[in-house]
Amino acid sequence: MISNSYFINVIRFALLVLVQVLVFNRLNFFGFINPMVYILFLYWYPIKQNRAAFIGLSFLLGLSIDFFSDTMAINAASTVTIAYLRPAIMRFVFGVNLEFQSFKLGNATYVQQFTFLALLIVVHHFVFFALEIFSFANMLLILKKVLSISLASLLLCLLFSSLFSVRKE
Amino acid sequence: MQQIINFILRYKNFLLYIFLMMVAIGFTIQSHSYHQSTFFNSSSWITGNIYETSFDITSYFDLRKENNKLVNENQRLRLLLFNKKDTLATELDSTKMSYTISSGQVIKNSYANQRNYITINKGEKDSIKPDMGVITSDGILGIVENVSGNNATVQSILNDRSNINAKLKNTNHFGSLVWNAETYNTVQLIDIPRLVPLVVGDTIVTGAMSSIFPENIPIGTIKQFDLDKAKSFWRIEVSLFNDMTNIKNVYIVYNTNREEVLELQEKTDSND
Hints:
By secondary structure, chain A is mainly alpha-helical. Chain A is 68% helix and 0% strand. Chain A has one domain (2-163). The longest helix of chain A has 25 residues, at 139-163. The model of chain A has no long low-confidence stretch (mean pLDDT 86). By secondary structure, chain B is α+β, with helices and mostly antiparallel strands. Chain B is globular and about 90 Å long. Chain B starts with a helix and ends with a helix. The model of chain B has no long low-confidence stretch (mean pLDDT 84). Classes of the chains: A mainly alpha, B alpha+beta. The A-B interface holds A 18, 21-22, 25-26, 28, 31-34, 51-52, 55-56, 59, 62-63, 66-74, 76-77, 80-81, 83-84, 131-133 and B 12-14, 16-17, 20-21, 23-28, 31-32, 37, 40-42, 44, 46-47, 50-51, 54, 108-117, 119, 153, 181, 183-184, 245.
């Protein structure tokens, strides 16, 4: 069972990287909107797992996206940030439910799932564009990009997560 | 000692996060300076191969449009060739030519970021070297930055670090071409003195000061202009001839006199 979950995660990692760089990085909707769907990896990743391994894996995920899109290492920096903050976000969103042994993402309410995903995306995009643009003089540009691209990412991530939903047990 | 170990064990995730964040920011800052982004680029073996495979599949979709573009360009060039008056003076000895041209195709393009890079399917094996100029049939595109065996990344003119010498076609006043990262179809020409008369619609071409591009490669036309903060130079919005969102066939230009020019400039600078 454990090897099965490893296998799924490896496949998911590779597929998300390919989908991100070959499809969504070329979307350029309105000239600048490229949704980032690879965040779903962090959304789907099992909850009770070794945290250090998860942070390391997220760093690798961001770095592989960076290799493809010539963005230095800003994807890696923003992904590792949400990987580190994920337990805190989950505690905020799911509250006491998280303490139960049998807790699964699929069992949470839709509002909770939605909030969890939205928070991951907004934090990620904020770090990403703050690092990419890297000047407080352009705060407005950063906010504009964070808002519009978060919305697009959220929309596509929701579509993807309902298409390939984690089976309810 | 025990306490230190306890501290590390307790905060190991936080420390790991700080460490990885430092690594990432370190890479980012290091590659801010020119020519150091050698580690992170899409011309490396694995990324290049994946992009090439996807290019092989998608390149069939707009063959007809691309063919039309190339035929139109051939037609224009033939027109120039047949109407050239003094055919005897044309040099055919390739050792005396000062520019070499090779062709390539774009396998990855981006224009939505702050720093955009284009990946082309020619590399070291096709004797592409860093600092060669890249142009299309419509105008300039960028400068080769990193090269691997089969691919190369090109720093697009839509990159906030790009700085190219450009001039007004009719008056020969030159300035620098930069990009403010706002829209993908306009770039900015700065450092043109205030006394220069400007008209909306004037053509901007590459200047002679560049050792990378030949002179008079088209760039775009003046869209609007106003004075900069100091009120002594124009800040010109240039709308590009190239449609940066749709680029397939490119030409890589190499100035065979570049080394000589650079050497000479260095000598002059060190004399000061």
